[in-house]
Amino acid sequence: MSVAERVLDGSDPETGAAPYKTGSAVARTADYWRFRMVQIGISFVVMAAAGLKAQQALDEIGLGGRWLRAGEISVEVGLGLWLVIGGFRRAAWWTTLGCFCCFVCIALYKSLSGAESCGCFGAVKVNPRYTLVLDIGIVAALLWARGGHPRSKVPDAEIGGVRRKPRRWPFGEIPRASLAAALGLVAGVGVWYFQPRATQAGVSGLEHAGKWLVLAPEKWLANRFPLVGEIDIGPQLARGQWIVVLYHADCDTCRKAIPVYAALEAGSRNLESGRGREDPGTRVCYVEMPPYANAADDPLRGIEGIIRGRLSDRHEWFATTPVVVEMSDGLIVRAAAGEAATNLKWRK
Measured on CA atoms in the order 88, 89, 92, 93, is the torsion positive or negative? Predict the structure, then answer.
């Protein structure tokens, strides 16, 4: 076969070896664009996840630590830009495949553990089962687009089967990959720098972060309950033995915790009644955090004989709900928040 015939056939002009397994220039071009479309699609998903995480980090406080959240965003932005800008395509393919294999394992674990959201898209709650399907689909797309082997060893100039001058980017592979990494680092550092930081607020015992007042019950131990002046029945809570449950009406974790404390109070009430004592012992108070729910959505509906109050709506509050504190004459003895407050182990 002559050199001209080898060029037209897509083979290497010098050795005659086909640079790809496919047999025609059209197929090789299709392979290339199929790979590029998969890259761009994955980049869109990764960048969307990074953007939603950044929005959550700038709006809310204390989610996984400022450095950890900034690191996640930096990696995702860098990977997304790398896939679009290009450079070291073989390394990019392997890196993306490795990342999404890890994402599959994480999504599978969260699915089996019954997590409500995968946490991949910031404040947007997505069932981890859906995320698992998406991640598996992306892994399959990566394998399909490259047939299991990235073909980056073949110069771009030979794509199409005819040796011609390649269409080059203004920069080489190293500058392009470095640019993606640098922009990812800038995004992460920017989120870290602008994320609200907790500082002491005007309300004694609370912290301020941006527009939020932060409830950090682990810092209240052995101190006075800082919300006495912010709850409509606060003065009543300053005397006696209390368990105060602060909840949001639209919080699923709160709805899971409320029956636990209702049963606790009912059992305590029955025990004290059987002993013939008038002292009610430890009482439970449910404090609703704004925005307040209407009667139809009230998680306390149907529970009788309870004491309830409301947290002031003069401030915007941030907390991992439910927040549960046990007090003795206004002094906090124990505290728990979030999933840890859905059972009574924190009291032991």
Answer: negative
